[in-house]
Amino acid sequence: MVQLLKKGFATLVAVLVGITAFAQVTTSSLNGKVTDANGAPVPGAAVVAVHTPSGTQYYAVVNAEGRYAINGMRSGGPYKVEVSCLGYQTVTFTDVTLQLAESYSLNAWLKDDSQMLSEAVVVSSANSKFSVEKTGAATNINKSQIEALPTVSRSITDVTRLSPYGGNGMSFAGTDGRTANFTVDGANFNNNFGLSEKLPGGGSPISIDAIEELQVVISPYDVRQTDFIGGGVNAITKSGTNTFRGSAYVYHRNENMRGNAVDGTEIAGARDKDRNTTYGFTLGGPIIKNKLFFFVNAEYSQTPSVAVRWRASENGVGNASKYLSYASVADMEKVSNHVKDKYGYDTGSFTDFPSDESNAKILARLDWNINDANHLAVRYNYTNNTSWFGPNASSMDGGTRSAYGRTSLYSMAFANSMYSMNNLVHSVSVDLNSRISDNLSNQFLATFSKLDDVRGTNSSEFPFIDIQDGTGTNTQYMSLGYELFTWNNAVHNTIANIKDDLTYYVGSHKITAGLSYEYQMADNAYMRNGTGYYRYSSVDDFVNGAAPEVVCLTYGYDGEKNPAARVQFSKVGLYAQDDWNPTENFKLTYGLRLDGLFFNNSDLMTNNAILGLDYYDSDNNVRHIDTGKWPSAGITVSPRVGFKWDVFNDKSLTLRGG
């Protein structure tokens, strides 16, 4: 019953927390106003923005109000932006850098050049921080800042501390980290089942050497960003350019690189063995210059570790200071040989235990400038994090658990009774940005993430067996077999997202409308005692075939071989937003987002006994509860309003709110 309640609670957490998974913004944009020397609009002027490292070009034509806008641009830079019109002197801006998910405001003033003889005016753009048209609270962190940041763990959560709202894992502004949303190129990288706030892949799903830029958002007023309560971390990966660039790196740390004393007093255990070595490389460049680019990253880290310190004693006398157990070498050999001869089962060693932790990452990305109006990015990421653990200390069913652990002063276990935790990440992102006309652009983004946490073992299928010391005092002595909580123990999470955003520019308005769809499956498979559990009172009883004192076996209901607490749902979002510039120094953003959550009932089962019970509401009306149906969900309505005011119209003082 307790396990059933735990399953129900875990599933409820998945429903309430695991829905934070929609794709976020993966590009940048550029806009501004083009006027002549008298401040009048210059309609028809051409704006050409070139991403200097890759030669990628973006175009816009100034409208009747003198405004232009370019959407779906590569984040970063530098960009060279050229503004030209017949009869006016061309103006060129250099060193323009765009921030992820933000719009950069760049205005141009054109001088008359009726004879068209003057050279272009080159402006080395000293970027004001207020050129970026943010509305909500957001922190953008680029690759230069990431590279300069000291980090011990080389994790995303170290980098997010640069946000004033971060600093404690995935917790932002004091909220539970499970309510945050982490996306990479729009793909979900969350612990959606909600068992912990730790990120997938053992907490490190992607190398920070593969990150181009990330943004930490707390209260964005952009309807495209959604599905988090505390904060969102929106990251994009690096792309190739026209220059071949690569790096090879090794990071190493050990216990001798940290302090071991405070005010001259040595700290006990400060110099215990603690080492990690990371090897990796990056490589990017052109496949076809100005057209097709690649970027790859591979990384492997290994942490020597000790999962089981205890060893069997030669004489059967335990010694805690030397980590010697009362379990004797002779008894360990006796039991191991017995099960090998009688059942053909290999217990594994009792002197050598797997223990090292490892983390392997691979990322590959292609960027294709199909033509000047269409730009495609495709990215794949794989992570496998493996760590080893000794068998559960003392938990069991069918009797009173021992006060002593299975690997302790009183007891020993074999290597094949250990288990590994394998954290796997597979993720794909496809991002197509298109300019349909001078006033209309579109982004299509499709992502798929498969995030699994699976227990592994070196054991073949065999019951888990506890053997006590024969004194009748419930003292644990020896354990062998398939670890009793590992059979069919896994958390699986599959997420697919599709969204399409259409942006239309008219006058001083930038209107965005979009539709998003998400499918998510999250489950927790768990069968304690799945291979059977036996407990014997002594080694002699076990070897001589005496009856065990405890026997347990778990099996799936109605013959189900892989039972799991599972939830599946679809989420549909519809949203629209207007960015309106009523004056040159004031921008108003307002929009509305509608989201509907629809659960799949196929994984549920009706309990007829509960269905037959009468429940009375406050009006004494009878109602019945069907456990085979999820509660119906309503439509979530999310209005957004934000503003940005350039107080003196010179980008020296900006007021934002919403």
Descriptive report:
The chain has 658 residues and is mostly beta strands. The protein has a domain at 28-127: Immunoglobulin-like (Sandwich), CATH 2.60.40.4130. 8% of the residues lie in helices and 45% in strands. It contains six helices and 38 strands. Residues 1-23 have low confidence and may be disordered.
Short descriptors:
Immunoglobulin-like, 658 residues, five-stranded mixed sheet, elongated, mainly beta, single chain
What does the secondary structure layout of this molecule look like, with pairings?
Blueprint: H1 2-17, E1 28-36, E2 46-51, E3 56-61, E4 67-73, E5 76-84, E6 91-98, E7 103-105, E8 108-110, E9 121-124, E10 138-142, H2 143-148, H3 156-159, E11 181-184, E12 187-188, E13 211-217, E14 232-237, E15 245-253, E16 261-262, E17 265-266, E18 276-288, E19 292-303, E20 311-313, E21 324-328, H4 329-343, E22 357-371, E23 374-389, E24 412-413, E25 419-435, E26 440-456, E27 464-468, E28 476-480, E29 490-506, E30 509-525, E31 533-536, H5 539-543, E32 550-552, E33 564-583, E34 586-599, H6 608-611, E35 615-616, E36 622-623, E37 635-646, E38 654-657
Parallel strand pairs: 1-7, 1-8, 6-9, 11-14, 20-21, 24-28, 27-31
Antiparallel strand pairs: 1-4, 2-3, 2-5, 5-6, 10-13, 11-12, 13-14, 15-18, 16-17, 18-19, 19-22, 22-23, 23-25, 25-26, 26-29, 27-28, 29-30, 30-33, 31-32, 33-34, 34-37, 35-36, 37-38
